């Protein structure tokens, strides 16, 4: 059973991670006033402001940074001491998992994962947050992030991984462009992408692959949300480059066509990463298996090109 002190410690780590009362409240399952009250109790307890408002958001004090790892160690030891030894039962677990995922992988994997969770673990909570590449390793290491789903080609110290989705990049455009896409069309059609880290990384990978073949495409339009991209393609000369599994979702209710690129593009391999400290955690292992099962359902759906 978690004591009031342990609950305060947990709230402190979440506040330090999010640097925002509103986002911390969401993860804690509390209202913003209740979370602000917890911060007040922590300030009184440690005799320090801990987090100070600034133009860039809330920033930690020196004292907060000093005690952060100490608090983390106390919580970890408490969890090891109080964790039941009996077999994990997903039907009664109330654990909250935090997953980092791009817009692509969230759109593909979240629906089958949530369907599986509602059926097998109705009390488990899942928070999907956008990628934060600069802090991803730190967050996996300190436990504020359970899983990171990413398209990466490098390995990281102390991280375990499992493949989720193997896919290919395709072109999506209005049907009026014909049955196939010529090299000239591919190189000259205005291309639209979203303004986020995943698309920036995807663009870089595509540009590097094309450069090796002596080609360059025309990136013309940048939008905030990829969900608007399919509607921008209808009755226009625009094109988007995206994973096939995602593209096939967008052609169901729109006069769009999936075109095979007339050039060689790298494969898409989405992988789940987690820290080694959770390798034998029964609940974490169950989530990983659930995510793998959700990913397998994607390949079973019929494709319409």
Automatic annotation (TrEMBL):
Recorded GO MF terms: DNA binding; DNA-binding transcription factor activity
UniProt xrefs under InterPro entries: LysR-type_TF, LysR_HTH_N, LysR_subst-bd, WH-like_DNA-bd_sf, WH_DNA-bd_sf, YidZ_PBP2
Pfam families found in the cross-reference section: HTH_1, LysR_substrate
Record flagged with keyword Cell cycle: no
Domain named HTH lysR-type: residues: 1-61
UniProt entry keywords in alphabetical sequence: DNA-binding, Transcription, Transcription regulation
Family: Belongs to the LysR transcriptional regulatory family.
Protein name as annotated: LysR family transcriptional regulator
